[in-house]
Amino acid sequence: MCVSYDATVNRPSTPGLRAELAECVIRTDTRVSAFACACAPGWSSIDVAVQSASEPVPAPEDHEGAAASLTRLELSQIRLVRASLRPGLLDRSIRAMQRSVGQWWILAATSRLRKVHGRERLPAWDPGGSVICVANHRSFFDLYVTTAELVASGLPHRILFPVRSTFFYDHPLGPFVNGAMSFFAMYPPIFRDRKRAALNLAALDEVAALLRRGGFFVGVHPEGTRKKDDDPYTFLPAQSGVGRVIHKARVPVVPVFVNGLGNDIVRQVRGNFDGTGRTIHVVFGAPIDFGSLLDAPGSPRTYKRIADRCLEVIGQLGQEEKALREPRSA
Q1: CA distance 47 to 51
Q2: Which sign, positive or negative, has the C-alpha torsion 100, 105, 106, 107?
Q3: What secondary structure letter does DSSP report for 154?
Q4: Please, which of 3, 118, 134, 156 could form a disulfide with 310 given CB 3.0 to 4.6 Å?
Q5: d(CA 219, CA 310)
Q6: Residue 67: its pLDDT value, please?
Q7: Which pLDDT score, from 0 to 100, does residue 64 have?
Q8: Nearest Cα residue to 264 out of 140, 114, 105, 177
Q9: Within a domain: residue 13?
Q10: Is 261 domain-assigned?
Q11: 299 domain residue, yes or no
Q12: 38: buried, middle or exposed (CB in 10 Å: 19+, 13-18, 0-12)?
């Protein structure tokens, strides 16, 4: 849904699918970001780059290059998922599959290792509202396990996880894996190439718009990428893009700290059944109180402070988990 068009430039001379691309200039607060969007009916902003909200907006001459960098495969896969976001039978079917098969296998694969704490802190789920979940990031599977638990507690929403575009959107097997593993939860794609930075800010605002529409659950990592050292209780710097989405969406934000998951899915599942896996602790917190931050004018500084607040609360949950994991002294 491209809004506040300041300029539209079609270039019919561009061959093939790129002839469909138009340049949409979208106003966001006091800044103007350009988002190169396909103007085919029903198609809209595509990217949530949570690490890029504080980066300089590219000059106008760079925008068309960002649009042209999208391949036919990327566009087709993006359109596939976007079609499923429209209210209707397809959307209802995917929601049902996410809440059943999509979560059953995750719960089964971690059943002997998973310890969940803080369920009593979770809010009552409102099917007509939306929720953001913020989690630390040490494993590819942090949000899978977290969301499976939330679905078990009654979460009724359509589930979305912003994901790096590599493989899921630039490989022919991407849509199959996305559909088989998560029923198309891995959306929107995050393009790390700086040449595509023009796609970022408008897409952050689109995710916020989906959340405001109601009926969505979006899981994000304030750190933006996995922390790969041996200390699970410290974090990478918070990225302001998460704060931007929170500030604009104005929906409950549930924090969680996860520790014990690996990154090898075969070893992780095998460890659940042969007793060699580590205990997985999942600690939920109450919805985050941002105080006056949400009332402050939107700005990179405000967004960064909101993201920092998320990591502060996640860190407190991490200390709870540490106390649970460490043996009690006699």
Answers
A1: 12
A2: positive
A3: T
A4: 134
A5: 13
A6: 58
A7: 54
A8: 140
A9: no
A10: yes
A11: yes
A12: buried
Contacts of 124 (CB under 8 A, 6+ apart): none
| Domain count within the chain | 1
- Contact present, 95 and 158 (Cβ < 8 Å): yes
CA dist list (Å): 72 to 10, 15, 45, 75, 276: 18, 12, 16, 5, 44
The domain of 237 spans 76-325
Residue 120 burial class via C-beta count within 10 angstroms: exposed 0-12, middle 13-18, buried 19 and up? exposed
Provide the 8-state DSSP code for 227: -
- CATH at 291: 3.40.1130
Confidence (pLDDT) at 222: 96
Name the residue type at position 218.
Answer: V
**In a 3-state reduction of DSSP, which class is residue 110?**
coil
Q: In what order do the strands lie in the sheet with 158-164?
A: 114-117, 280-284, 253-259, 131-135, 216-220, 158-164, 186-190
Q: Is residue 231 part of a domain?
A: yes
Q: Is 89 helix (H, G, I), strand (E, B) or coil?
A: helix
User: What are 166's two structure tokens?
Assistant: 């590599």
**Closest by Cα among 194, 196, 175, 251 to 219:** 251
In angstroms, rounded to a whole number, what is the distance separating the alpha carbons of residues 297 and 238?
A: 19
Query: What letter represents residue 227's amino acid?
Result: K
Per-residue pLDDT of the chain (330 residues; tens, 9 = 90+): 333 222 233 333 333 433 333 333 333 333 333 333 433 333 333 333 334 334 333 333 344 555 567 788 888 888 888 899 999 999 999 999 999 998 899 999 999 999 999 999 999 999 999 999 999 999 999 999 999 999 999 999 999 998 887 888 888 888 888 888 889 998 888 777 777 766 767 677 878 999 999 999 999 999 999 999 999 999 999 999 999 999 999 999 999 999 999 999 999 999 999 999 999 999 999 999 999 999 999 999 999 999 999 999 999 999 999 999 876 544
pTM of the model as a whole: 0.80
